[in-house]
Amino acid sequence: MPFTLGGDWYPSENTRKTKPLLSLEKRKNADVTLIKGLKLMPIEAEALLKTVKRELGCGGSYKDFVFLFQGNHIEKLKSSLKEMGFKV
Question: What global pTM score does this model have?
Answer without folding.
Answer: 0.77
